[in-house]
Amino acid sequence: MKRHPVIAMAGGGTGGHLFPALAIAEELKICGAGEIVFFGTARGPEARIVPQRGYRFHKIWIKGYPRKLKPEALLIPIKLITALFQCMYHLTKLWPDCIVATGGYVCLPMMLAGKLLGKPMVIHEQNSLPGVTTRIGARWAKAVFYSFAASGKYFSYHQEAVLSGNPVTVEFGSLTKEQALGKLGLDLSRKTLLVFGGSQGAASLNRAVKEKLKDLSARYNVIWGAGKGNVPGGIPAGVLAGEFFDDMQTIYTAADLAVCRSGAMTLAEIAARGLPAVLVPFPYAAEDHQRFNAEPMAEAGAVKLILDKDFNGEVLLKTVGELFTDTERLAEMSEKMRSFYRPGARKIIAERVMKIANRE
After folding, report:
1. Where along the chain do the CATH 3.40.50.2000 domains lie?
2. Buried (b) or exposed (e) across 25-64, using 16+ Cβ within 10 A?
3. Per-residue pLDDT tens for 195-223?
4. CATH of 177-338, one of 3.90.1150.10, 3.30.420.40, 3.40.50.2000, 3.90.1580.10
5. Residue 130 and residue 253: Cα distance in Å, rounded?
6. What is the DSSP letter of 223?
7. Residue 22 gets which letter from DSSP?
8. Which CATH class name applies to 7-167+344-357?
């Protein structure tokens, strides 16, 4: 009789860690996994999104670790020990066949609990510069999957470290560009600019768009994902503005150029679409990992990289204008962007998880 192994998923705090976990979970169901249970925090997006996707969700008491000495740092050992016991309690009741960790502070107590309970673990790292928790847990994991070739040197000691790419939940091909523009109510004869900064928005991107929105909307369709609470009044015609867009398949398909941050999942999605981009890395990301994510793409000519300190409304308007008038360069950027997409990442990871869970 075929087994349907139980899988525990840990990854959250940000969408960049959560969505790869959801993509892997979707593929695990296709591969025949039984129950898939997520662990995360009450504050992160996982608390809302995971139950919406139909998965059981356990909340654990943990928060990001401050990188500077602050009074709240004194609570780290207490929170970590509490979260460890919470994970131990739920894992002993669930007794999963494998633990899958996709990074972030949520994963550390889960990996510690898994190690203490002797549970096999699989890790996926999204960023080119692996996070601290990934680097700790990788030494206990049966297999490590990573997304950028540059990350390989951090796992060179590991017997099974695989360049898989980032698993994405967005799929392309079912919609044409014309259908996407029609669905969004945008002008089919215009170029379409997409500017977004994630669920919380990006302050420098939002300032630049607000400053030049009238000029941009006079020339192009503009899709603006401003983040929660950041959409102003008086949006001109030809601009689709929202806090966050759930249907990113349609949004990406409609766009000719993106201006965005360089989180690992954003890069994986625009690479899957082959969407040229202007990347403005978030300067306060842990260990400046967004810049490290963007640099290989910039060196390959797939994107234009602009540092946050150098980005403003004038730079946005000038850069977009130059790229939209150089159709040959845009086409080259699109082709080079597709070269960074590794199809089948979620399947590669899920199949290995199933083998480990089934002790194969």
Report:
1. 7-167+344-357, 177-338
2. bbbbeebebeebbbbbbeebbbeebbeeeebebbbbebbe
3. 998 766 799 999 999 999 999 999 999 99
4. 3.40.50.2000
5. 30
6. E
7. H
8. alpha beta
In the beta sheet, which residues pair with residue 143? 122
Q: Which residues sit opposite 100 in a β-bridge?
A: 9, 122
Q: Which residue has the tokens 């890069």?
A: 267
The contacts of residue 20 (CB under 8 Å, 6+ apart) are 11, 102, 124, 126, 166, 167, 265
**pLDDT by residue (tens digit) across 49-95?**
999 999 999 998 876 555 565 666 666 778 888 989 999 999 999 99
What totals of helices (H) and strands (E) does the chain contain, helices first? 13, 13
What CA–CA distance (Å, rounded) separates 13 from 90?
A: 19
What would the 3-class secondary structure string for 232-301 be?
CCCCCCCEEEECCCCCHHHHHHHCCEEEECCCHHHHHHHHHHCCCEEECCCCCCHHHHHHHHHHHHHHHC
- Residue 167 one-letter amino acid: P
Q: Which two tokens stand for residue 81?
A: 């020990």
What would the two tokens of residue 215 be? Answer: 């000029």
